[in-house]
Specification:
Length: 480
Amino acid sequence: MNELIEWSRAQFALTACYHWLFVPLTLGLAVVSGVMETLYYRTRDEFWKTTAQFWQKLFGINFAIGVATGIILEFEFGTNWSNYSWFVGDIFGAPLAIEGILAFFMEATFIGLMFFGWNKVSRGVHLTATWMTALGASISAWWILVANSWMQHPVGMEFNPETVRNEMMDFFAVAFSGTAVVKFCHAVFSGWMTGGAFVVGVSCWYLLKNRNIELAKRSIRVGAAVGLVGAALCMGSGDASGVLMGREQPMKLAAAEGLEKGGEGAPFSIVPGVEVPHVLSLLATHDWNGYVAGIEDIKTEGAEKIASGKIALEAFRTYRQALKEGGADSPQAKAALVQFNKYKENFGYGYLDSPDDLVPNVPLCFWCFRLMIGLGSLCVLIFLVSLWFDYKKQLEKFKWYHLAAIVAVPCVYIAGQCGWILAEVGRQPWAIQGLLPTSAAVSSLSVGNVIITTMIFAVLFTALLVAEIRIMCNAINNQK
């Protein structure tokens, strides 16, 4: 069973990581091309039209490949995680359905007008289509992130012991929870950073090759500005995310910091052995002396929850058996339901064996958090340097700057991947935080089938990624 769980998780992680290679660039390039076309609309300068069309071409290539991985990712909830889909499908399916019906079709409709409407509709209509494409991409991200945020912090539902399903009671609590809002902002603004870094990196490649100089310089100006705005907003949403994490997912925060024992005035670890006093408390609670729980503290609390969870699980099994034998009105069913309701808050903990099961992969969480911050900070530095050199009319002067900007492109992608690894690995052992363990969410599949499909997906996704890179490189190289 453990092998099945690990391979199912590996397949989903593979798909999610590949998908997230395409999503942030879609979000970022949509905004960059929208800004460039707005400049064309306001100035009537044909150069901005040509520049916007170039970046829109790269946006289209990336968008097309990203759709394929996204569709497979959603299907895996039914194939690999059918118990999860049964348990919370009434809730989880709603935002995904809205995303497909509203956001994706909106995005797909306007993207056609954006690509094929040049010289066929007025400049104002075309500009509207470009910004509606960007808006559609963000709305699509909203509903996907609502679904993911609900897994991080489940709200707005009630468990029905007769159907063994969680049923949505408050749609707006699900759609507009604090976790959903913060996660959406953080993901979208990181996409602006990715788009900005990509535009600056490609433009610096042109400068390095002494080609398309004017396109490169103007694109750097826009890309660095969009990226820097995204970075500033990303830092704000990241701060809010840290507070929410400390309150709603304390184990994830403890793992990200490698914090064994909690307390007031908790220090922030830059690297193992190098700590800054009080900073973690300030980040997690906005209080210099705020209390932050450590791994051992949470395990102690978890032991009590596991004990009560097992009582709830046993009462639930008794209730289900009583339903079959005497119906819901039988004394046995009523007594079991009373017992279950008393402990149902910790029902999910009943599937765990020991408090050690509550601890995620601490080294992976710890270093992903630091890579995310470190590489993100490097990108901010590149944006600042870019705008300074643009102000000083020195964008063409320094080769080291061109090389650094090119290196920043993979760095921003790695930072984004690390953020998602922390978000998902840090939640383990839960498929839904505090509600459904991953071990109880998996489908009854043969390990061999999961391994085979994982390998097929790995080859397929790699081929798609290689194809996208080659097509993009050709488009960049052939730009006149």
